[in-house]
Amino acid sequence: MKILQSILLLLLFVPLTKPAQSTQKNTDNFEEILFTRDYEDQYLDGKNIKKKESMMTSDEKSLQLQQDESSTSLPLKKENDEMPTCLLCVCLLGSVYCEEVDIVTVPPLPKESAYLYARFNKIKKLTAKDFAEIPNLRRLDFTGNLIEDIEDTTFSKLSLLEELTLAENQLLKLPVLPPKLTLFNAKYNKIKSKGIKANTFKKLSNLSFLYLDHNALESVPLNLPESLRVIHLQFNNITSITDDTFCKANDTHYIRNRIEEIRLEGNPIALGKHPNSFTCLKILPIGPYF
């Protein structure tokens, strides 16, 4: 009888214990799952943090590289700063280039400017104010503009000016020229003899090259300096010359040693009718003799 009671108790106990074991197992699994998820979350977060850190590091490196590049490019910028620009012109090592930019007046120039090239623009007038504060100018080139008038004092302060080119403009007369000129070019204008004063070239003791061809001159300019080597007067309206034009009528021993070329072709003059006009020259002028 006791045995039966024990068996019955055992049968009753077994079903109760099994679910308890299953529940404990499920609980353990649940805790494992939570632990695993928590671990994975932490692990992945750690990876993400590392990834973010690596991204930040990469961005910082990129920023550092950009800073390094900008720091290494500073000298280049400094070099560019040494080559300033003047509005529409380019200034480089004392030279100013204002060619074919349609300017109508002389632009403001750096005080250290020595050479100005303002060719093929629309400048109509030159004034003393244009160069008042630019005393170091040595060369001016205004070829191909529309210059009709130049104030007499325009070049008065340019004591160092050596070359002045006014070719292909609309000039009717010449201004006072600076004393140290070695080259003066005013070809292809509308200059008449009355537009050149008697003493315009007299004191230019360094002048070597004079180009006044393709104008409207009726005579050769007076008082041409001894320093001249080349004189271009072709294609004007010159009809006569005198014994004093190139030589000295009262000095038969006078010789012009420096003259290398005189061009008078294209003028309505027969050079053969004026033989005494060339006795001081080592070469005869180029032009019609009959």
Automatic annotation (TrEMBL):
Signal sequence coordinates: 1-19
Compositionally skewed regions (Polar residues) per UniProt: 63-74
Chain positions covered by the region annotation Disordered: 54-76
Compartments where found: Secreted, Extracellular space, Extracellular matrix
Gene3D superfamilies: Ribonuclease Inhibitor (3.80.10.10)
Name under which the protein is recorded: Mimecan
Protein purpose: Induces bone formation in conjunction with TGF-beta-1 or TGF-beta-2.
Family assignment from sequence similarity: Belongs to the small leucine-rich proteoglycan (SLRP) family. SLRP class III subfamily.
